Amino acid sequence: MNSLWSIVIGGILPAIFWGITAIFQKQSATAATGSAVYLIAFGAACALAGLIAALIWRPAPWTAEGLGFAATAGACFAVGTGLISFALFAYGVPVSKLAPIWSCNVLVTLAIGAVFLGEAAELNILKLVAGTLLIISGALLVSSA
To answer: So where does this one cross the membrane (predicted)?
Structure first.
């Protein structure tokens, strides 16, 4: 039961919230909010959520290394989110066309985890290749629907 909750809390619920996020990101672009303003409002909401989480969840130590990694993750997320917002705003591309493509981010995470975090030994290469082909072909099919 514990592993099921970890999948729900760390996988299913984030997927739902990120899916909803994409819709509001498109609505923001449709309402003529540029990428910079979107990132400011998005970042403020993230900061507020962080403050609330700090009050609710158990305290954890703050380390310079941890803060550096968190800031780098935030910067990468901001660049990706800003580029999506720009494409939605400047080009008016449908979110339903972009979402399948940016959802291939799992392949980037998988590759970096395998190479730099030493997780390659845990991977079944045959399943990895098959899954990668399915993800890419699925993204191409859905984005061209």
So the answer is: 6-24, 36-57, 69-91, 98-117, 123-142
pLDDT for res 60: 82
What is the average per-residue pLDDT within 34-59?
92
Q: What is the predicted pLDDT for the residue at 119?
A: 87
Is 142 exposed, middle or buried, given 0-12, 13-18 or 19+ CB atoms closer than 10 A?
middle
Q: Which amino acid is at 62?
A: W
Task: Say how far residue 145 (Cα) sits from the centre of its chain.
Answer: 23
> Do 29 and 88 meet the contact criterion of CB atoms below 8 Å apart?
yes
